[in-house]
Specification:
Elements: H1 2-20, H2 33-37, H3 44-49, E1 59-72, E2 78-85, E3 90-95, H4 97-103, E4 112-122, E5 125-135, E6 143-147, H5 151-154, H6 157-165, E7 168-178, E8 182-183, E9 186-187, E10 192-201, H7 205-215, E11 220-223
């Protein structure tokens, strides 16, 4: 039933975007927000509002591909322009022929991408010149950390272990627990211990969403 509900929601959101030009009742990126946050990316709105960084300093952004335009250069090679959006804004991305020849299969509508790029601004218009493009859902991580911040949350670890079994994979899952520690009578803030678990899991957006619903926003991290 859960899969049917998710599919029905995606169809509804796609219909809203097609008919109204925007999402009205939700956004397809909300369910994968914990995964996007693990990339430590910059939001598109901050890129648009911030001063242009130096040419040699690249930014990282993750989002959904919307419209795609492929052209042929004077040298007979293909390159592309596509619009990328996150939960706050959208921006045009330019992918030149050398990179496009390697990543053309990724540049399709509704694809969730991670882009490393140079920011350029001309005549008030901001664009990204792509340096690297990858599929967010195909990323590899060394571990998944679940942050436990209270004793009440510790009691939920058994349910976490049960849920993890539904998303068995190759990423080791670890629990990050706060510990009380004093030095010369002064309490240290943010002290913690990282505990191994027997679980190996997937970076499945549904599992990440479940963790955040159970333990709070920001309670899960994927470590590269």
């Amino acid at each position: 039933m859960k899969v049917i509900e998710e599919w029905a929601e995606r169809i509804r959101l796609n219909d809203e975007k097609h008919l109204l030009g925007t999402y009205m009742t939700g956004h397809p990126l909300r369910s994968v927000q914990p995964l996007l946050m693990s990339y430590r990316t910059k939001s598109i709105s901050k890129i648009l509002e911030s001063p242009v960084p130096p040419k040699e300093k690249e930014v990282s952004v993750a989002g959904l591909v919307n419209s795609v335009k492929v052209i042929v250069t004077k040298k007979g090679k293909k390159m592309a322009f596509f619009t990328m959006e996150d939960l706050e804004a959208q921006i045009e991305v330019v992918i030149f022929s050398d990179l496009f020849s390697k990543r053309a299969d990724l540049i399709t509508g509704d694809r969730l991408l991670f882009v490393r790029a140079q920011v350029v601004r001309e005549s008030g218009s901001t664009r990204l010149l792509a340096r690297e493009v990858s599929d967010v859902t195909a990323a590899s991580f060394s571990q998944l950390q679940v942050h436990i911040r209270s004793q009440a949350e510790v009691e939920g670890l058994s349910s976490l272990m049960e849920e993890a079994k539904k998303f068995s994979g190759e990423i080791p899952m670890k629990i990050k627990l706060p510990v009380e520690k004093n030095v010369e009578g002064k309490a240290l803030k943010h002290s913690h211990v990282l505990i191994d678990t027997p679980c190996q899991v997937q970076s499945n957006p549904r599992f990440l969403e479940w963790i955040e619903n159970r333990f709070g926003k920001g309670s899960v991290s994927l470590i590269e």
